[in-house]
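Good morning C.,

I know you're traveling, so I'll keep this short. The sequence:
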Amino acid sequence: MPAPQATPVTAVTLTPFHYHSLAVPSGTATLARFLADRSMSYAIGGALGALRPSVVLPEKDYRRDLAALPWLCSVFEARNPALLPPIGKRLNLDAEGGYPKKIMDATGTGNLKTWFFIQEVPPGVVYDGAIFGPDPFDMVSRQEGREVGQIVVRTGRHLGGLVALTRANDPSHVRLNAHTANLFGMDPRTEEALSVDVFALYDMQFTRPMELAAAAEIVGAWRGFEGGRP
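The tokens, ready to paste straight into the viewer:
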């Protein structure tokens, strides 16, 4: 399969956001250094109308969902990783009349804890990454009938953060996620290139930085990803 088009991208955070990435005392902290490839693929899909809303949550299947998108993303890596001080959050499960005792008993710990702390990524953090597939800036420009140089996407828990994407001037080295490669079926010829350099989380296993063209060739070999190819 031919390699998909690769568009180098700079992402800048506009508002704070968080993910439940790492356990910290009485809460969670976001991974400041990386934005995951899947998060960015879904974020672009949401911004450009490629995600279909539904009142019924489908069965979890990352490969099915990612293969349906016209693009995939590399990992986005921060130039200036930073976190804001911890802030308290409350999960209000009883606002609509309460919940059963077994749920009440569980709200002191874990994912149902009603009071916890988070650490968010602040505005102004700059990330570098790439989009594989049709150039989204060209897609939006054609739709709008004018040149569009910036796309704003939502990311983070509850899509609470805004991130501005612009084309990067020069191709850069990018990391891929070996976990995503495994979902699609890893080409044996690319196993060495996809060896894990940073094990961030179980589903965020990042390769060493590689040239953009090499990364595009690897993504193009993933079974099921069309990436805008005819």
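Safe travels,
E.
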